[in-house]
Amino acid sequence: MGIVKISEDMHENLRISSSALSRSINAQAEHWMRIGMLAELHPNLDHSAICRLLIRAEQAGGLDLQSLCALADASSALGAEA
């Protein structure tokens, strides 16, 4: 675990979003980082596909980058076949 320095504006956005979504500020920041990381790794997935991917990963035991990427690749392949 470490400290991440962010701007005051981003901290305010986190504070507002975390309150609105009933998450801690840290949980909201981690959520945004997870979504952003997956969006960069898999630009073909939209937000809703990323959320479904995160839910499937949680059902499978939690967020593990390697297995999550495998799930995303499988989801992409299925989407390409449709």
From TrEMBL:
Its name, as the record gives it, is ParD-like family protein
**Source organism:** Pseudomonas ekonensis
Pfam families tied to this protein: ParD_like
